[in-house]
Amino acid sequence: MPRRPRLSLPHVPLHLIQRGNNRQACFYADEDYRRYLDWLDEYAATTGCRIHAYVLMTNHVHLLVSAPRAEAPGEMMKALGQRYVQYVNRTYQRSGSLWEGRYRSCPTQSDGYLLACQRYIELNPVRAGMVVHPADYPWSSYRANAQGESGTFVVPHEVFETLGRNALERQAAYRELFRHDLDPGMVDEIRRATNGNFALGTALFGAQVTAALGRRAQPGKAGRPRRAPPPEPQIFV
């Protein structure tokens, strides 16, 4: 069965995840994380992508990205993935595949969903039991978004900019969001959309993505399609 084409639209945020092959590790040392982030910065710039949030876990990566061209995130991930695999194979004297095939992704509605998706990404180390607070994890965008850490390539999305009148107000408002757990239903919704290559948002947003791309952007109903009832017999008099 052919794979469903990815859903990607200009300027629409895209949440994507790339896993290590067979869920094996793809980062082994601090230098690996630093190299990946350096190249992410480089290829985001060359393809015109804006990185709004990220986290590098031991065996997978989450990104929240938008771009003026629908093809740009794919171009960025291809160049980044190939260069990083070459580095890992050379450094650790290994060969073969590092990534679990294609990355998975979902277009994300800005209103009501984008900040939830950012929190989902930056809370990954907390859910995994690696740290108590996202600020304690060095390989994510939390410190940039919530604490204004300098020297980062993270670009705030326009929705993030509405959190306050200046950077300090926006950071404080964003930190306040982390005082409460992310709703489990939202966590499940983000996972379903990303793993299934569906739109993350309201039904209206999904319909808009479907109309814009001419491809189904929402899950179909479970079960086989219902058969049409047989035609009524015609009686001739």
Give an overview in words.
The chain has a four-stranded antiparallel beta sheet, with helices on both faces. It has one domain (14-213): 2-Layer Sandwich (Alpha-Beta Plaits). It is built from nine helices and four strands; from the N terminus they run βαββαβααααααα. The protein has helices at residues 30-47, 72-91, 114-122, 124-127, 142-147, 158-161, 167-177, 184-196, 203-213, and strands at 14-19, 50-56, 60-66, 104-107. By secondary structure, the protein is of the alpha+beta class. A hairpin with a 3-residue loop joins strand 2 and strand 3. Helix 1 (30-47) packs antiparallel against helix 2 (72-91). The radius of gyration is 21 Å and the shape is globular. InterPro entries: Transposase_17, Transposase_17_sf. Residues 216-237 are annotated as: Disordered. Residues 228-237 have a biased composition (Pro residues). One of its GO terms (biological process) is DNA transposition. Residues 9-124 form the Transposase IS200-like domain.
